[in-house]
């Protein structure tokens, strides 16, 4: 028997949690990931890539659960802090984590959080698509951030259609959405052509980021 803290056991647990998450079983996934983060931290160290990967997955899972937005925000901030220290601000994994935090803000109702999230997601998307990273348009991180921005834009449009005279706070949020139209041609949303599906928050997602 390998034991609960063996690195192979922890890798399997991390993978199982991701499967559960994509099956919509976030509560089960969170329970597994909490233990995985704890055990990986004690065995490998809190700054090890695998530990940070599990933290990132846990934060992403929490962000999809009601009432867990603040915990997700704080965990993503911890992930970003460690990644900046270990990989640097411009590493693709750090950029992805910053975008993930931006998605958390985009899901909220507070105008200032939404604007902050929009700026963060847009920045991450542009960085991934630009040199030296040059991500493919079909890469999962790019699709994930485009999907978040499209969802934000659709929510704005829905809010407008339900109101004959939007309040100032909503107007402010909607007017700031025009920043989506100012993307560089490479980062253009191309809304009518998008087919968005699976996401990938994992720090290991960069393994598929090579240009195709």
List the topology elements:
Layout: H1 7-22, H2 26-43, H3 49-62, H4 69-86, H5 92-106, H6 111-129, H7 140-161, H8 168-176
Helix pairs in contact: 1-2, 1-3, 2-3, 3-4, 4-5, 5-6, 5-7, 6-7, 6-8
General description of the model:
There is one protein chain. The chain is built from eight helices and no strands. 36% of the residues are buried. It is mainly alpha-helical. The chain is globular, with a radius of gyration of 18 Å. The chain folds into two domains: 1-67, Serine Threonine Protein Phosphatase 5, Tetratricopeptide repeat; 87-183.
What's the end-to-end separation, in Å?
41 Å
Mean pLDDT: 81
Total count of domains: 2
Shape designation = globular
Question: How much helical structure, as a percent, in the residues?
Answer: 55-70%
Helical/strand content category: mainly alpha
Order of helices and strands: HHHHHHHH
Keywords, separated by commas or semicolons:
8 helices, 212 residues, mainly alpha, Serine Threonine Protein Phosphatase 5, Tetratricopeptide repeat, 62% helix, 2 domains
């Amino acid at each position: 028997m390998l034991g609960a803290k063996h690195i192979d056991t922890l890798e399997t647990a991390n993978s199982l949690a991701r499967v559960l998450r994509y099956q919509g079983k976030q509560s089960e996934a969170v329970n597994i990931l909490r233990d995985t983060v704890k055990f990986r931290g004690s065995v490998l160290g809190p700054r090890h890539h695998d530990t940070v990967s599990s933290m990132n997955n846990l934060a992403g899972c929490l962000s999809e659960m009601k009432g867990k937005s603040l915990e997700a925000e704080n965990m993503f901030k911890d992930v970003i802090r460690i990644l900046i220290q270990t990989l640097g601000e411009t590493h693709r994994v750090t950029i992805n984590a910053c975008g993930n935090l931006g998605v958390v803000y985009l899901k909220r109702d507070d105008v200032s959080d939404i604007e902050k999230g929009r700026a963060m997601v847009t920045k991450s998307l542009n960085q991934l698509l630009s040199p030296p990273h040059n991500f493919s348009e079909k890469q999962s991180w790019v699709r994930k951030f485009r999907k978040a921005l499209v969802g934000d834009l659709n929510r704005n449009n829905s809010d407008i259609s339900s109101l004959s005279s939007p309040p100032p706070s909503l107007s402010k949020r909607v007017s700031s959405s025009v920043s989506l139209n100012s993307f560089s041609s490479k980062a253009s949303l191309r809304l009518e052509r998008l087919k968005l599906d699976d996401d990938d928050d994992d720090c290991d997602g960069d393994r598929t980021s090579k240009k195709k």
